[in-house]
Design brief:
The structure is a single chain. The chain is mostly helical. The chain has helices at residues 27-58, 64-73, 75-83, and strands at residues 4-7, 21-24. It has a two-stranded antiparallel sheet.
């Protein structure tokens, strides 16, 4: 299997040669796939941080006062969790 798409040369007389031109179809697709994969990994890491570190570290189940005190005491971490 090749990674190229063959495009026939133009038929008119002013064509420089009659050989088929090759267009590389993998470089753009590969770059897009790498960017998308990197973005998915970044989203997964941020979601893990936001849920496991921030939410579970600041929320006290069944105790709203303790939760609000924890959030007020760690406003920077709370903001990072919201941003993530």
């Amino acid at each position: 299997m090749t990674n190229h798409l063959e495009v026939p040369a133009p038929v008119h007389a002013s064509a420089p040669s009659a050989t088929a031109q090759l267009i590389d179809t993998t470089s753009g697709s590969r770059r897009a796939a790498l960017i998308a994969g990197g973005a998915i990994l970044l989203v997964a890491a941020l979601a893990g941080f936001g849920n496991l570190v921030v939410v579970q570290g600041l929320v006290t189940p069944g105790d709203a006062k303790a939760t609000s005190d924890d959030i007020l005491g760690s406003q920077g971490m709370f903001r990072l969790g919201v941003a993530s």
